[in-house]
Write a structure and sequence with these properties.
single chain; about 375 residues; alpha/beta; about 35% helix
């Protein structure tokens, strides 16, 4: 088997590539990246003879697709704004594909994947991705499902990479139409900082206040659980407290709308300038606590009794006590590892049918949870009658 790791030199996707070298059966692992010099550094760090490097520019669709041909799967770690182009490359190459983001740009290429007998799964990291697997794990044990609350804490710096800065500003764009909840059969758009809810994350994170975010779980879980009668799906998230304070201030002052300002003789978006500053500042690249925490609550019925399931996930500490999980890697490995797991399942034909599939239709929750456990990422469950 062969895997093409698009954007594999990025801070998150390199962790996916690392996981493939440690756990997968791939015989060839190709890093395809625009930044060849950085990709070579990643190759040297991995120190695995199966790894090679090629230049890839997804804006050159035909050229990149040609390089991908013959690979079993493309593991796409490119940023949100490139996913339409990157998925076009994968579809035209005739490969299976999976990416981290899942914001809908992939669906336009569904016919090409079906014609090639291949599967594309948009959005499979921690969230979206593992969140759907945890929710479905609980929902599959229920007779009916009424409510699903997906919550996460992403404890990482505001701007440790350009793509993460882009994600931050994207999710709190005041005009973003994708910030929705599913309620009583309808998708309802909400503004930033809508529907605050206190969520108790596993230690060391503790209680957090979280708000609705524009993640694909709202759409995918409402589809997957339609037959079980789901009437409410809400997806929330938070970052470190200082990050949330900054984003709230930028929102309150209208800066997240990215108004143009003049600097000397040039004009630029104000948010672009702030993002550039954060990318090059200590405050933008560090935080006190690193890691990831998921909290999934599913309310439904089991044998006629109203039941609540709460699932959480934990991982090795970021304090240096566990080699390989120090500092920022406690965050980036959490996001990158599920992508690698999904890529291998797809390469082995595990999704079962072609086209662009939501994670709930492509993967079996227990298989993913078991694979995470092998990496010391643990899912815990608590059930109660309510």
């Amino acid at each position: 088997m062969k895997v093409f790791c698009l954007g594999g030199a990025g801070r998150i996707c390199r962790e996916s590539v690392y996981d493939l070298t440690q756990h997968s059966d791939f015989e060839r692992i190709t890093i395809g990246d625009y930044d060849v010099a950085e990709a070579q550094r990643v190759k040297e760090w991995l120190n695995d003879p199966r790894v090679d490097v090629v230049f890839s520019d997804v804006t050159d669709v035909d050229g990149t697709a040609e390089k991908m041909k013959g690979y079993d799967v493309v593991m796409d770690g490119t940023q949100i704004t490139l996913n339409g182009k990157s998925t076009e490359c994968i579809a035209k190459a005739g490969c299976h594909g999976v990416n981290l983001n899942g914001f809908g740009e992939e669906n336009q290429w569904a016919d090409l994947f079906r014609q090639a007998g291949k599967t594309c799964v948009p959005g499979f990291g921690m969230t979206p991705g593992v969140t759907q697997m945890m929710a479905m794990y609980a929902a599959n044990k229920m007779d009916t499902v009424e409510e699903v609350y997906v919550s996460h804490g992403a404890f990482r710096p505001f701007a440790f990479s350009k793509s993460i800065t882009e994600t931050t500003t994207y999710e709190y764009d005041p005009d973003l139409p994708g910030r929705i909840v599913f309620e009583d059969g309808e998708y309802k758009q909400v503004p930033p900082f809508a529907r605050p809810r206190k969520v108790m994350l596993p230690e060391p994170y503790g209680e957090t206040e979280q708000y609705i975010i524009p993640h694909s779980e709202t759409l995918t879980l409402s589809q997957a659980l339609k037959e079980k009668g789901v009437r409410l799906v809400e997806v929330r998230g938070t970052w470190p407290k200082e990050n949330m304070t900054l984003v709230r201030g930028l929102y309150d002052y209208g800066i997240l709308k990215n108004p143009e300002v003049r600097v000397g003789n040039e004009t630029a978006g104000l948010m672009d300038l702030i993002g550039g500053y954060l990318l090059n500042s200590e405050q933008g690249k560090t935080t006190a606590l690193y890691g990831y925490a998921l909290h999934i609550e599913v309310v439904g019925t089991v044998d006629g009794r109203k039941t609540r399931a709460i699932l959480t996930h934990t991982h090795p500490a970021s304090d240096g006590s566990v080699p390989g999980w120090e500092g920022l890697r406690a965050y980036t490995r959490n996001v990158g590892i599920p992508l690698a797991i999904a890529a291998e399942i797809l390469a082995k034909g595990g999704a079962g049918k072609p086209g662009v599939l939501i994670p709930e239709d492509a993967f079996r929750p227990q298989e993913v949870i078991d694979a995470l456990k092998k990496r010391d990422i643990l899912v815990r469950e608590q059930w109660e009658t309510v």
